[in-house]
Design goal:
This protein has six helices and 14 strands. The chain is α/β, with parallel strands linked by helices. The protein has one domain: Metallo-beta-lactamase, Chain A (4-Layer Sandwich), CATH 3.60.15.10. Strands 6-5-4-3-2-1-14 form a seven-stranded mixed β-sheet, covered by helices on one side. It has a seven-stranded mixed β-sheet with strand order 7-8-9-10-11-12-13, covered by helices on one side. Strand 4, helix 2 and strand 5 form a beta-alpha-beta unit. The relative contact order is 0.15. The model has no long low-confidence stretch (mean pLDDT about 95).
């Protein structure tokens, strides 16, 4: 890729850049997260907007689980970043006050992702476009869970978070219609867990597949990392287009 540059931050956190435009995805997580988080110094710099984090064009979330989102950190971020656009799944019952507080601080800059029509809506973020589509969450129900497609010209970054791959047609028929020719994808390790799921992802025609959402050894209480590495080794034989992201803060070469 030449227009889009990607940095893997931690867990599902990504920074996508094009020229002077930048999009943060699933980067500010709750302390209750069972997965790895961005280190405190970097997290504070992101929230306060210092150094390389001074001019973030947009911050987006796939869903509001603790390992992807934190309300307090996001609210503080939006107070400090006075021109940043926020894409945030609508709060479920019992959390409406969070959306009200965010709207008070950044209502004109916030897009709440509710129900989406068949054709995926999009938001312009500087040089980039962020399209989004609702999709099912794997394992258990999550009312508002989204896949994102960040694009610039003929390049794209598909972010799928915890998508249920048994329902991948949900995004094939909406978000991926007209997908840029050079699109890379970020998928949960379930993408390499079963042959039918891997085949469904492989059929998308992505130029590279990145496996993220992999815990460190220290966080691998449920053997999730070991399972991911085992499945990855099986499907990546003689393939250079499948990459396992197991360490934080990696500039991703697409």
């Amino acid at each position: 890729m030449t227009n889009l540059k990607i940095k893997y931050l931690a867990n599902c956190g990504l920074l996508v850049k094009s020229g002077s435009s930048s999009v943060l995805i699933d980067a500010l997580n709750n302390e209750n997260s069972l997965f790895d988080m961005i280190d405190k110094e970097t997290e504070r710099a992101i929230i306060e907007g210092t150094g390389e984090w001074a001019d973030i064009t947009a911050i987006a979330y796939t869903h509001r689980h603790d390992d992807h989102f934190d309300y307090g950190k996001t609210l503080e971020f939006m107070k400090n970043h006075r021109e940043t656009i926020l894409l945030l799944p609508t709060a479920v019952s019992g959390h409406e006050k969070e959306d009200a507080a965010i709207s008070e601080v950044a209502g004109g800059r916030t897009v709440f992702l509710g129900e989406t029509p068949d054709a995926a809506p999009s938001v312009t973020a500087g040089d980039m476009k962020i399209a989004y589509a609702r999709c099912d969450h794997v394992t258990y129900y999550c009312h508002y869970h989204y896949c994102l497609l960040v694009s610039c010209g003929n390049e794209g970054v598909l972010v799928t978070a915890d998508i249920d791959l048994d329902h991948i047609d949900d995004i094939k028929n909406s978000l991926l219609q007209g997908m840029p020719e050079k699109t890379v994808g970020f998928f949960n390790p379930i993408a390499v867990g079963r042959k039918k799921w891997f085949d469904a992802v492989d059929d998308l025609g992505l130029s590279k597949l990145f496996i993220y959402h992999v815990p460190s050894d220290e966080k691998d209480e449920y053997m999730y990392r070991k399972m991911a590495i085992s499945h990855y080794k099986r499907v990546s034989r003689n393939r250079s287009d499948i990459v396992l992201l197991g360490e934080p803060f990696i500039p991703v070469r697409a």
